[in-house]
Please model this.
Amino acid sequence: MTQTMSAATDASSNPLLNVGFRIPFDQIRPDHAELAVDALLTQAREKLDHLARAGERDFAGFMADLDTLTEQLDTARTIVGHLDGVVSSDEWHAAKMAILPKVSEFYTSLTLHEGLYAALAAFAQTEAGRTLDPVRARHLKLTLEEFRREGAELQGEARERLGELNTRLAQVTSEYGKNVLDATAAYELYVGPERLSGLPQRVLDATARDAAEKGKEGQHRLTQHAPTLLPVLTYADDRELRRELWQASGTLGVQAGRDNRPLIREILKLRREKAQLLGFRDFADYVLQDRMAGTGERALAFERDLEARTRPAFEQEKADLNAFYHEQMGQDAPALEAWDTAYWSEKEQQAKYNFDEEQLRPYFPLEQVLSGLFEITRRVFGVSVTEAQAPGWHPEVRYYDIHDEAGTHVASFYTDWFPRDSKRAGAWMNAFVTGGPREDGVAPHLGLMCGNMTPPSGDTPALLSIREVETVFHEFGHLLHHALSRVAVKSLAGTNVAWDFVELPSQIMENWVMEREALDLFARHYETGEPIPEELFGRMVAARNYRAAAAAMRQYSFGLTDLALHVEFDPDSDADPVPYARDIMARFSHAPLPEDYAMIASFGHLFSSPVGYGAGYYSYKWAEVLDADAFSRFAKEGIFNRETGRAFVDSVLSRGNSADPAELYREFMGRDPDADALLRRSGLLPA
Model:
């Protein structure tokens, strides 16, 4: 990668060196990345060598130094990866790819460093190591386990091979993610207004403006971004248009030059080889050893049990939708296809409940949603959120501070809500800085929330769907888990928890979106200021579990496909993972899936990072059981009950991974989870 003289390695000229709490996003450029990471790697290696000699000196501060060994490096690489995802360009991608092999090699070397592992094991045998407080004792225990799990006891060629596997996994998964981003950005379809019958006016306005900005006045630009794609699939009367966009969505990541299909097999092979090299049967067992599920087989059993209990309701929903469709179109009408399901489901929902989710959008302007979310958070968890100022990576980025009831600044965060062609799809939360208790007080945390929500349109503000509102609440739940952490050990703080527990704080927040008392704090018509009419609210509640089985089965399909690929599929066989995955997903689809359906070629959750949600997508449903059950305490004691909120902060939000997650859950609920809670909430079991 070509460097410029301006990207000097000293901290005064390279903003990625010695990054503090206030990140200078207005100064960071791609040419800063590699030189900064090189310098930080040199520093980290010096610290590593010093730590590895701990037995020759003394162990004072040994675990604390280990905990913060890569702090600056972590922050710098997080920033680089983040910028490649939100202001992506060839330059940012090149910068990310330039540092990937170096960073991957270093992180692999940490757990393979014989001196460090020996020092860690020696410390565990000292009096100091045997008399640590419970949190630091857990840190020591988990660190030793992680070192063993990551190959500390490997020797010779096996150790070298592990380093090669980790480096290649980092490269190929990054390439996969880049292909998805590029394919999404490249897709566009220009159509005239005559093809958009049925679509909401807000979508017509947005797509017309988008086309005009591209020099196509009088046309409409359709993309694969969710705020465009989902309304077309749900409302467009033009069946051929729905088919075209649906099939394009199902084949993202298979185009020439961006074809992820061979990468999927390679990723699966690399992951399995790594797992077996480390003594595990497969990648799922490797990943899940330190999670609540424990093994791939247990996670599979969890998903398959839910599938079996949901399938009767799903089959009934399919029969009902088919019957409704033929009532409307005649018995000789062609069978429903996959691109028809959302459209006819919306028609059936309107017929059954006289409810269209579009009716709710005027009550959900983004600014009011955020204000309501922050007020709910104040009432329940006792923290206040205020807008502040800090440099961002794009003009749409906003910045906020969080203070606790005593007025202490505990966190800040950025938001970036709208889609761009240079921004990856989906919604996510991430951490830039992990603070927490310090000898001189509390160091604040720093995080971010990103999404791809419905943007403003002309003079109309950003009006969200109820699903988008739930997404905002969801990501803020993750952010609170980070922001309210009181764990002094950085490695155990915030969202650094088992991935089948990490979704509990996010998913429980979604429950407030369906509560009248909570909605009345923010759901006001953007023009009149009126709350959601009681009659509309009643229809919304009545329709809440419409096709709940289909929605659940869709999630099961993702979780089971993921687990099957990592447990049961043999990547060394002649079988092709793409049709293998399609065949699994077909069991959960209302209509047959086409032969070229290749959704896993753009399934970034599974394949755009070395681990990510690979073998862990089941976590969403696992945590949904936890959140449905845990919210029952709020429902019983009051959704704004401050004492209940305090208990949730004290037992879950503030505790990170400082104790076993099952123990934390029992602390809050006084018992183990009720496995039926989710099915009851979804209307699939009697209440």
